[in-house]
User: Fold this.
Amino acid sequence: MTYTPEIEAENKRRMSLYFRQYDPVVGDELMQVIPREKVSLNGSTFYLPTAMCQQFPCLKVGDLDPLRNVDANGKQVAARSRATTDYALKQRLMEIRFRFDFEFWCFHCVSIQDKLSKRQIPFRLNYGQRCAAHAYEEQRLAGTPIRVIIVKARQWGGSTVTQIYMLWLQLYHYTGWHSAIVSQLKNQAINIRAMLSSVIANYPTSVPRFTMTGFENLSNTKYIPERKCRILISSAETPDALRSFDFSMLHLSEVGLWKSTPSKSAEDLVQALYSTVPYVSGTLIVMESTAKGIGNFFHKNYLAAVAGDSVMRPLFVPWFAIENYALFRHTEGGQSIARTADGLPVSAVTDAKRLVEGFSSYQEKQWQQGATLEGIAWYANTQRGLQYSDFMMRSEYPGSDSEAFQAKSNRYYEQEQVEACRHTCCAPLVVGNLRGDAEKGDACLRNLRLTEQHSASDELRVWIRPDAESPQSVTDRFLVVVDIGGLSAKADWSIISVFDRASLAEHGGALERAATWRGHIDHDLLAWKAAQIAHWYGNALLVIESNTLETKDAICIQDNGADHFFTVIDELANSYGNLYMRSVAPEVAGDGVTKRYGWHTNVRTKYLAYDQSRASIRDGEYVEHDMRCCDEMDWLEKKPNGSLGAIVGQHDDLIDTTAIGLYISTREMPMPRKLTRSKATGRQRSGGVASF
Assistant:
């Protein structure tokens, strides 16, 4: 990269965004947390909460006298309780503001321990905490339940701001608003609640105070008698203590580390806790954790929130937005960061031009993600000092949520490749199923129609429909690949992937996912369903991964379960003529048959397929739409014995069909050609034949 004045200006903008320190008494002019109104009070400018100005219109014109006659909730007071002095009026305004202005209340009433100096300091929200408070306040002010899921980087205080926000709701907004803190271990929950006890114990004497006591000799429960609120703690290992209570707020901490047991999964536990909180305005559920791998309950819930398929709102704060992770000058023996007159940290980068023009490709990515030059320099110094690998650094200091969730270091697909695929994922046009005149046999291919009827074990998702109305047709357009799974809910999925090759007819075109069927059904019905889908997609080439059919285990299954898949394939070939066949060397065939139906996966063909898929994804020759396939890309790893497979507890069925589809489309099928409708014959092609 070339160091330019634009880069210098952008770096200053980022420094101001992440590391500014405004005066919470005056109020945040940039209004990062809540909407505010600029008002003039006694000759000074303030930025007060819009909701506060709407309830007390006198503030907009700078008239404080009407506040003398109301209490902190805006209700009329008796004559003896009027704020007759200027000091009493100032106190009245402050108490009113506590209820509307979380940032102001934090700074005035809450003290926390500074991470560097270890001194008790006023709680001034940093960038990440302002992001969290904004998520909470936006939902509360809209009158909706507060639901947020947070992927944490270290050291920005996500748990702190969450718990203090919950305390603020209890002290100033709701009575009898019970809360619970549930962490991986009970000691973690105790530490979080101890912070609240410290806040109450050190509450300023200049304002009405609160107390925190025990509750009926219960060791896991504290009580705020002035507000009739209970604060309970528990752990994921001993959650039963919470089941008999009704809660209005839940703080679920380090959910990604919660362990499942044979009798209870982490998912079951969270769902049981959810049921204790009604879905009404003002209630709160915050689920937060450092990311620990992919495919687990926390990861799935976060992805659902990102996709908009959940009531939870996603939140991630990258490492470079955290003040401790940047190269700044320090004062007082290293106990505090030196700041300029406008409150920004003093940079310790001595040669920004040399830094920028020496960027590695990943440092350029960090800049594109939004990092400051001071942050990038700190990151490089830290990696050198700790001798961390790239994987270890990205795990400890993620710059994006996908980096936070990255799988093991022996992953097969590069994370950047998977991120590129995720960017093209989207909701399907249709979720349903294909139906014909029958479930099997020739009749199943007649009168095909797409219905909305589906289940978790029999579901078709369609992104691209077969285009019967196009003025042009495309030869060899669609490709269908089948991976045969098991029948039980815990077995591997059976997958039917459909790929659209139309754009390959143009220079620079790419293979694109058109549809995915996933389920657990009898193998003979699976074969006919695949034929239905292939027939619907213009008599597409149908590729069946045949390993399951060619093993002794498969024969045993057929003998015991009357599946008879071999017979089904023969029947299918009579009804559907575009089945994929592979060549078999005579010395290998043994029975004299040198062509067999189906793709056979072995050590050689699996790596051929996967290497082709990785190259195609890297070069932008594949467009993915199914997020589930991206998940499988993320957890595919190279095993110690050199084989490829999903991490323990996850599946790789979808990516298997994708890899096979990319190989066959690239290496074996002819390039598609556009034909005018008058030249399209509509007849079925003969089956494709592989070169091995």
